[in-house]
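Below sits the subject:

***
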Amino acid sequence: MGTVLITTGDPAGVGPEVADAALRSGRLPEGWEFELVGDPAAGRPGQPDRASAEASLRALEEAGRRWRDDPGVRAVVTAPVSKAQLESVGFRFPGQTEFFSGLVDCQDFAMCLSGDHLSVGLATIHLPLVEACRTLSTAAIVRTGRLLHGFARRRTESPRIAVAGLNPHAGEGGRFGDEEARLIAPAVAELNAEFPGGFSGPHVPDAVFRAAAQGEFDAVLAMYHDQGLIPLKLLDFDNAVNVTLGLPKPRTSPDHGTAFDIAGRGIARPDSMIRAIQLACQLATPASSSP
C-alpha cells in the first residue's frame, strides 16, 4: 500500500509513548508500512526544554519534506507538539495544520475533527476569538463546507451537514448580531446550490451539537475553534482525530495535546493515535477501493 510516517511530537510529552503503543496494538490496518520519525529519547518526560522543542521541529520538518516529495509516502500522522515550545525555536506557523498546508502552498484547506459521536469542520482555526469573529466570511464558510462535505461523503453518500450560528440563539433575528443573516445564511444557500439539500442552518449553536451526536446530522460546520472542539472533546476525547482537509495527501493527528503532566507515567491512552493512523490509511486508499 505504501508508507505512513508517524512523528514523535515533542519527546517530553506523551507522543513517543502513544506512538509506540499504537504500533504495538495490533489494531493498525494490514498492508501498510509504518515508520516513526524523530528521536523519542531527545527529551525528558514531563520536562520540556529547548532540546525537546528542537527535536520535535526536526521530526516535523523531516516528515513534512518526505510527505511532500516521496511518492512512496502516502500519509503522515503527527504526534502532539507544544506550540509555545516550537515558537521558541523559530517555528512560524500557528499550528501543524498550517505548516502542512504551507509545505504545498495550499490555500484551500480546513481543519476537521472526527470521533465516535461528532465530526466537526472549522470555518476559522487558530485565531484569537475576537479576530476569528472579525475575519469570518461567507467565502470561508463555503470553502470549509465543500471540504467537509467531501470528507463526509467517504462515510455516507448523501451527508447531512449542520451549519452552526455564531451568536447566542443564532442571532435571535438580529437582536444578538447580524452575522447569521449577513454571512452564514448566504453561505448555506451557496452550498445547497452546489450540494442540494446537503446543508442546513444557521442552527442555534448550543443545541446543534447535541442533535448531531444523536444522529440527526453527519457533521457540523462550526464558526470558530472552541465552538467545535469543546463538544467534540467532551464526547470523543479519547477517540477523536484531527485531519487537515484539502491537502494532496492525508495528514492526521490525535486530538489531544502533549500532556506533559502525565508523560512517562505509562497512563497515556493510545486510542486517539490508533484512530489517527487508521483514518490516515483510510483516506490514503482510493474511495472506490476503501472498505
About this structure: The CA atoms of residues 89 and 240 lie 29 Å apart. DSSP finds ten helices and ten strands in the chain. Strands lie at 2-7, 32-37, 73-77, 110-114, 119-122, 161-164, 199-203, 219-222, 241-245, 251-254. The longest helix spans residues 50-69.
